Amino acid sequence: IVRLDGVPMTQDGEYTGMLFLLQEVTEIRRLEKMRSEFVANVSHELKTPVAAVKGFAETLLGGVEDEKTARSFLQIIHDENERLNRLIGDILELSKIESKRSPLECSPVHLATFFGSVFDTMSKVAEKKNIRLNSQIPDELFMEADEDKLRQIFLNLLSNAVSYTGEGGSVKVTAAPDSNPDGSENVIFTVSDTGMGIPKKDLPRIFERFYRVDKARSRSSGGTGLGLSIVKHLVELHHGTISVESDLGIGTSFIIRLPLLQEESD
Ligand code: ADP
């Protein structure tokens, strides 16, 4: 017999009342639904490149006469394998951030030096499309941040900007200090491009996992559909906010506001 505290009982141990337990399950259900949708999406996303690798490898094994066709099949196998690699990396990264196994490790960051090295990483891809990378970062601006995570935020935003901007376009990053009414200080960053833009109806959803405006376009540029979702998580981990403005055919700007200093508890 389990004795339930608070339920009236006679001296010989019989219950004379009932205890009702009401629990709000809406949030639990919502999270369960989100998790099972995520698992379904992940399986679908992983199956696509695996099926492509299998199909093209089998065709090659069956024998392809012409060398040029064989090479093009090998190239597809290589590219799909790379995508699979990126997908696995992004899924692991997202799960690490979401399960809070990736705490902030902050140090002072000199933003002009930081963006110099981020631009070095991006310069090859930008050059290939003849896209100009510009920046406007005050030389005296320092902030407290987890540098690796900050790098990932801007590499994701910049690689999207380059992917979704046509040949000869330009991409610009700015940073400027700003203060809140309560006296606390922020840095406001913008990452703007002169690319194809995002339709208004899609704007509220682009930070969702696996959401893409145009599946074919994202796949052909090697996207995983997880980049912006990772960016949003990393910005929020720094207690910041991110928003987006876009005009179709004109370009897109992401606006990121991060605190200049992180609280001790981090
Ligand atoms: P992906 O790997 O598909 O790029 P993201 O999560 O990084 O996934 O972005 C989600 C979607 O938002 C993209 O598929 C693309 O349609 C759109 N998008 C993101 N950045 C830009 C941009 N700078 N210009 C136009 N569209 C963009």
From TrEMBL:
It is found in: Cell membrane. Residues 41-262 form the Histidine kinase domain. This is histidine kinase. The chain holds residues 332 to 597 of 597 of the full protein.
